Amino acid sequence: MPIHSIEPRRLYRQIADQIRALIHSREFAAGARLPPERDLARQLGVSRPSVREALIALEVEGLVEVKIGSGIYVLGSRGNGESGTPVQAAMGPFELLRARWIIESECAALAAKVAKRPQIAAIEEALQQMESVANDDKRQPLAGDRLFHLRIAEATGNGALVAVVKMLWEERMGPLFAQLEHHYDSPSQWTRAIAEHRLVLNAIGKHDVPGARDAMQGHLDRAYKRLSKSWDAKH
User: Fold this and answer.
1) Which is nearest to 219 in space by CA: 91, 107, 121, 128?
2) Residue pLDDT, tens place only, 113-136
3) CATH number assigned to the domain with residue range 93-228, chosen from the 4 options 1.25.10.10, 3.20.20.20, 1.20.120.530, 1.10.10.60
4) Which of 22, 65, 92, 230 fits as disulfide partner to 12, beta carbons 3.0 to 4.6 Å?
5) Separation in Å, CA 26 to CA 31, 65, 146, 151, 186
């Protein structure tokens, strides 16, 4: 079964469908290592982030396994040739991060402009919750992370922005993002993320509008780059 070009506007689910079909047809046999992401992206005519989103969806289904520094391996179909239920997330992790970069950076800028002391204190409280949980290596400070970003949105005084940020974080807490993040999660990563959050809070507290925007954009840029690091075998 040949690989067919996919138009760039297509979502990660169409890419996953094609790779899934190749696995079911034994073009990619159980135990085999898939071609590197860059090769799949070139053959499919899509970006590497789109391929990664598709592979993460297939990993959630149980069809492939990602081994950092080695590659992506086919686990095969389950039972009578059927895989797990295909992931139906509304957006892929990188699409989500791009949307957050646009929306949450402007939330931070607006919060820096209009936030009152109680709202800034509430953001500080969320950051302290992150710091407290991060001291325990067995736990992720994800609840505090979500609260931090929501409280920035709340500090804008704009209910529509709060609703949008809540929706984005519902996707952020979903299986696709969780599986992708699992491959890179570590206490040191959270330490860096907390320091980035502190920069955002400091700018908001100083009512530094461009500084708050830049700090949030920098935070999300670094998250994007971290989750884009190569999975392929090292040479």
Assistant:
1) 107
2) 999 999 999 999 999 999 988 877
3) 1.20.120.530
4) 92
5) 11, 16, 41, 49, 35
